[in-house]
Specification:
The complex is a heterodimer of chains A (186) and B (168).
Chain A: H1 2-38, H2 53-59, H3 62-70, H4 74-112, H5 118-144, H6 151-185
Helix pairs in contact in A: 1-4, 2-6, 4-5, 4-6, 5-6
Chain B: H1 3-6, H2 15-28, H3 36-45, H4 57-62, H5 65-84, H6 88-101, H7 106-116, H8 129-155
Helix pairs in contact in B: 2-5, 3-5, 5-8, 6-8, 7-8
The chains are: A mainly alpha (186), B mainly alpha (168).
């Protein structure tokens, strides 16, 4: 009986976690869309340009927090947390949006590709899902824990997003190369 | 055709003449400004608000107005990215150095900037929006810290001043 209740509880928790994840995924996309619109032309760029790593490190920097805490001012500490949280959320949502953009391009390219490897596509899709999940987790952690404790995970997400972009570029290049070969041989 | 002229960047700049103009700008003009913040404000002030093009007579006459504009745009983006990566401590020093060079007290600049936010016009036109957000946020924080130091000093004059006067 106790085993059944624990299994049901775990199942329910997992279901709730998935539900929250799905809702957040939708609201993040909508939220980012409105942020992009409010920031004018800067969010409208077609090409996803990753933020330089030193700037990601700065957003999640502990050194700045230490400077603030030395002032012993609660209002400055509040302002700092508020400002950094805002920038960190902006970054993670921009990154998440960039990843989706790359995936959309990849799907289009794959649709037109002559030679598709199922295993490569599957691993790329899993990579994509992992990245989105990492972004969502980071989004929640930024809101709850604050950015100053998340430098390592942020750098990891940044590195993964760059790798994902490279993987798509490599696919697009090999695909373009293959298309050229096919057209020249015919 | 000169091979130097054929090398273009992704943005369509003729790279070599722009690089020459950029070097010239660094050597003759920007090196004479004492802080990166001062350099940023100077470059932003050469931009036409309506067209977004940069105008610099000296550089334009040595090269072409278009090349000068591209070199200024390049310098603007570079300096902006550098400043966005500064720690808060370094950014506070930049504001103090800028205040000294402009012969204003840091307190006056802090008060005016907090109200008018003139640093917003120093944002380059084409840039990753996260970099822009970080820069604006860091400036707000640096100004708040300077304001806090000033208030603390006013309340307790024995506290060592962190705000430099223009004569220092």
């Amino acid at each position: 009986m106790i085993g059944l209740i624990s299994a049901l509880t775990i199942g329910l928790l997992l279901f709730l976690a998935l539900l929250v994840f799905a809702i957040r995924l939708g609201s993040t996309a909508r939220g980012f869309h409105s942020v992009s619109e409010s920031s004018g032309e800067q969010g409208q760029s077609e090409e996803f340009e990753a933020c330089p790593p030193e700037l990601v490190a700065r957003i999640f920097s502990r050194a700045d927090w230490e400077l603030i805490s030395r002032t012993h001012s609660s209002s400055l500490e509040r302002l700092f947390l508020q400002e950094r949280r805002k920038v960190a959320l902006f970054w993670v949502r921009h990154t998440s949006r960039g990843i989706r953009q790359v995936m959309r391009k990849h799907t289009e390219a794959a649709r037109n590709a002559a030679d598709i490897r199922f295993r490569t596509e599957l691993s790329l899709f899993l990579f994509y899902m992992e990245l989105l999940l990492m972004c969502e987790t980071l989004d929640v952690l930024i809101t709850t824990v604050g950015p100053s404790r998340l430098q390592r995970i942020a750098s990891y997400v940044h590195e993964l997003s760059r790798e994902f972009n490279y993987a798509h570029e490599a696919f697009a290049r090999s695909n373009a190369g293959g298309a050229t070969e096919t057209s020249s041989s015919s | 055709m000169n091979s130097r002229d054929s090398f273009r960047t992704r943005a369509g700049f003729d790279l070599v003449p722009v690089c020459d103009a950029y070097e010239d700008l660094l050597r003759r003009t920007l090196s004479k400004i004492s802080s990166d913040l001062g350099r940023l404000i100077f470059i932003a002030s050469t931009r036409d608000y309506n067209t977004g093009a940069y105008l610099h007579e000296g550089l334009g006459s040595r090269f072409t107005p278009e090349t000068a504009s591209e070199a200024l745009e390049l310098a603007h983006t570079q300096i902006f990215k550098q400043l966005a990566a500064y720690s808060l401590e370094a950014l506070i020093e930049e504001i103090e150095t800028y205040a000294c060079a402009s012969r204003q007290s840091a307190a006056t600049i802090v008060h005016t900037w907090q109200i008018l936010e003139p640093y917003r016009v120093a944002v380059p036109l084409q840039l990753n929006p996260t970099i822009v957000q970080l820069f604006l946020s860091n400036i707000r924080l640096a100004l708040a810290i300077l304001r806090h130091r000033e208030n603390r000093e006013a309340a307790d004059p024995s506290t060592a001043s962190q705000l430099r006067s223009p004569d220092q």
